[in-house]
Every structure is written in C-alpha cells, then in structure tokens.
Amino acid sequence: MKSGVVAIIGRANVGKSTLLNNLVGEKVAIVSPVPQTTRNQIRAILNEKRGQIVFLDTPGMHVSKHALDRAMISAINNSLAGVDVVLHLVDATEHVGEEEAMVIERLSDCRAPIILGLNKIDCAPKHIQDYLDAWQKKLGKDLSNATDRVMPVPLSALTGTNIDRLLDELFARLPEGEPLYPSDILTDFPRQLTIQDIVREKLLAYVREEIPFSLGIYAEEIADRSEKLTYVKALILVERDSQKKIVIGKNGELLKKAGEAARKDMEDIYGKKFYLDLWVKVDEDWKENSEQLKRMGYI
User: From CA 171, how far away is CA 85, in angstroms rounded?
Assistant: First the structure.
C-alpha cells in the first residue's frame, strides 16, 4: 500500500478547493469565485485500494499585507514541511503573475516531487505553455527531461477531466506505508473552522465584491443542546459600518438568506439540526488582532 501527504499549492482562486472536493468526493472546503476564500489549511483524506492520500488544501499565495495574510502565508510554508508530494495547481486560462512567480520560487527549493496541475482545460487554456516555460526557466531544462522533479498534468477540477491520471501520478510518487488515518475519517478539520467556513461561503455568495477581504467569521459558541440539535452563535466581523449594512441587507433579508443556506449545509454535513444565531460586528482592526485571529483559528 501507498500512503502519504500531498500539499496543494497555488495562487488564489485557481481551483484548489474545487479540486480537493472532487478528489475526495465530498465537500470539505468552501468554494467561491472570490479569491482567498480558503484561509486555513484543510486536511482531507482519500482512501482507495492503492492506499491513502492526505491532502492539504492551503490558502492562495499572495502578497502579504495584514497579520491575517501573514498567517495564511505561514500556513502555506508549514504545509511544505515533510510532505511527500506537492501539487502546484495553476489556472491555465490566466497569465503567469507575480504570485505564480512566488510559488515557483518557493517550490524550487522543495525536496518533494512536484505535479504541475494545469487546471481549467475545459475553459480555453491558452496559457499552458507559459507555465511550462516558467518552470523550465527555473529548472534550466525541458520538462520532458525533468519528470522526476516536475510532472505536468492538464486537468479540470470542475468537470473531473484527467483526475484519474492525476491520482495515478500522485500514487506513483508516494512511499509505501500504512494509512495515516482510519479509513472512515474524511477530514480532521475542526468543527469550529468548518462552521466558520460554511457561513463565510454563503455570505460571499450574496455580498458585493468589496466585502470579502474585510469579512471574518468567528463561531463564538457551539453547544450541543441535545443529540439532535446544535446551537451556534457566530460573529460576522466587518471593518466599517457601511459594510455592516450591506451584510445585513434590507430588512435583514441578506443575512437571513445566507444563514438559512449555511444552516442547511451544516445539517447535511453533521446529520442533525442546527440553530444558527448570526450577529454582525464592526471591528476595523480584526485582521491585525493576533488574539482574535487565534480565536478564529487562523494562528
């Protein structure tokens, strides 16, 4: 049997969470068209006849500005320590950007073998060669002669195209060994962080574009009132009064819709009823507040 850890690395919004959910066949990471939706390192487990893969879905690589951003970059760096394979996922429909250069530079010193996942081949991927060229320039040789170091795999995280081939390449590079987790565990992502991510995902589906980077969720209280009901009190942190009004919506309609959608997701995941109590709070410095970031699970 093969068993090991695979870190999924890439800049923001290249489809890492979509790919992770597709690989394990369950929703374990929030998915949104808004960049930087993944703020924590999510661990998901795939079990099959060949063995077990523990996937790490990391925050998108980006230029650091706040304590929150620095925590996200730290999560990326920590995920590379001791992994068996790195999956460098890129959006082949977009140009190679500054963040991509950061990823390649960071991964060039990594000892683990690298799979270059050329994502979104279902959407006219005209920049595949640009990513191949970027890696070839860094390595100083053609990728056809560097398959032991970097192996390109075109794929679609959304449609599942070439996912089987991707798994073949990953398993081929994993060491032999016993499973790291019991076979009935899908993720070890804490319940608090899962709940926070679900609420944030639903809000991102409704709020305007200027809100997401200023939006934080803190599950202040999670209490199992009975075997069938869990109470959750969650704070939605924004930086300005104007953002609070947007999140709440006219007559509270936006907050109500997002809350209902989040509650349904929680009930589907945990198989029990949830009472979700949402509060919106203005805290202009929450992204620089280390104690608050610790409570939210980012540090």
Answer: 9
Please give the single-letter amino acid code of residue 105.
E
Q: Nearest CA to 234 among 284, 268, 275, 287?
A: 275
User: Residue 34 — left, alpha, or beta (φ > 0 → left; ψ -120 to 50 → alpha)?
Assistant: beta
Task: List domains and CATH numbers for the chain.
Answer: 2-173 (3.40.50.300), 191-295 (3.30.300.20)
Is the pTM here over 0.70, yes or no? no
Question: Which regions in the chain score pLDDT beneath 50?
Answer: 30, 32-39, 62
> Rounded to whole angstroms, how far apart are CA atoms 298 and 41?
9
**Joined tokens for residue 269:** 């995941």
- pLDDT per position as a tens digit, 167-209: 999 999 999 999 888 787 777 667 787 888 888 888 888 876 5
Cα–Cα nearest to 278, from 241, 240, 239, 238 = 238
- Given a contact cutoff of 8 angstroms between Cβ atoms, the answer to whether 273 and 279 are in contact is no
Count how many residues are written for the chain: 299
Res 34: pLDDT? 47
| Contact (CB, 8 A) for 76 and 59 | yes
For residue 196, give the nearest of 236, 164, 225 by alpha carbon. Answer: 236
